[in-house]
Amino acid sequence: MKFGFDFFLILLIHSSKSNDLEDSFRQQGKRKILVESIRDKGIKDENVLKAINAIPRHLFMDSSFEDHAYQDKAFPIAAGQTISQPYTVAFQTELLQLKPGELVLEVGTGSGYQAAVLCELGAKVYTIERQQKLFKKTQNFLRQLGYRPKFMSFGDGYKGLPEYAPFDKIIVTAGAPFIPKPLMSQLKVGGRLVIPVGEDSQLMTLLSRTSATKFQKETFGEFRFVPLLEDKN
Ligand code: SAH
């Protein structure tokens, strides 16, 4: 009798665990369709598309909103923040032109989805989040999923991470009213900084550092992000 009850309990625990991080065939199928729609919108980098295909985006959202995970849309996560639109994640990542082993700084960890994409591409990822609750939640979650950023920081992304600089690439995933100087100075010569710049809507901006003192600027159309805020809380 007792054996039967324990066995039932173990089964129950086991099935609830495996459901937690489940990635079903149905979800994988929806993800394939999402990847094709992003390709149709103009993303060409096969490695970026592969990374999006590999990452179970539904797990980065509250389970009651899972159905929205494979629409190409931004979506609210905890603490009034958003998980960026998959196309936007792909667009910014493509602009970075990442190579495996490069040091990348991400400003705005949020759900951790973009950080997972960077890890999937073989980068050494450093990421900063200014909201403590979100920072802790995402730190645990990425670990659970098996993604291992080199360093996750609770802090102010306007300041970058001088102790780990210089970086090959820097990506900002919140709308910045201006390009923070510390981020420019923490970029290697030959490095790329991808940052949406603007108040209500943002121009996707690529700064390439061509020498110790020179940066080349290009812009790539309008996007909408939650604001890059000053001071952590
Ligand atoms: N990369 C995230 C996008 C999250 S939205 C993802 O893939 O889900 C932008 C994030 O930037 C929010 O979590 C917000 O709290 C954070 N943020 C805003 N201002 C910041 C700052 N100054 N420093 C660090 N993070 C900041």
Mean pLDDT: 91
CATH architecture: 3-Layer(aba) Sandwich
Strand content: 15-25%
Biggest sheet descriptor? 7 strands, mixed
**What is the helix/strand order?**
HHHEEHEHEHEEHEEE
Small molecules held by this entry: S-adenosyl-L-homocysteine
Helix content: 25-40%
Tell me the count of domains: 1
The coarse silhouette is globular
Give start-end ranges of low-pLDDT stretches.
Answer: 7-18
Oligomer: single chain
**Which structural class do you get from the secondary structure elements?**
alpha/beta
In angstroms, what separates the terminal alpha carbons? Answer: 53 Å
CATH homologous superfamily - what is it? Vaccinia Virus protein VP39
Number of distinct helices: 7
How many beta strands in the DSSP annotation? 9
CATH class: Alpha Beta
Rg for CA atoms: 19 Å
What is the CATH T-level topology?
Answer: Rossmann fold
Across the major sheet, the strand order is 5-4-3-6-7-8-9
Overall description:
- This protein has one domain: Rossmann fold (3-Layer(aba) Sandwich).
- The protein has 7 helices and 9 strands.
- The termini are far apart.
- Helix 2 (25-40) packs antiparallel against helix 3.
- The protein is globular, with a radius of gyration of 19 Å.
- The strands form 2 sheets. Strands 5-4-3-6-7-8-9 form a 7-stranded mixed beta sheet. Strands 1-2 form a two-stranded antiparallel ribbon.
- The longest helix is centred in the N-terminal third of the chain and has 19 residues, at 2-20.
- The protein has 233 residues and is of the alpha/beta class.
- The structure holds S-adenosyl-L-homocysteine.
- S-adenosyl-L-homocysteine binds next to strand 2, helix 5 and strand 4.
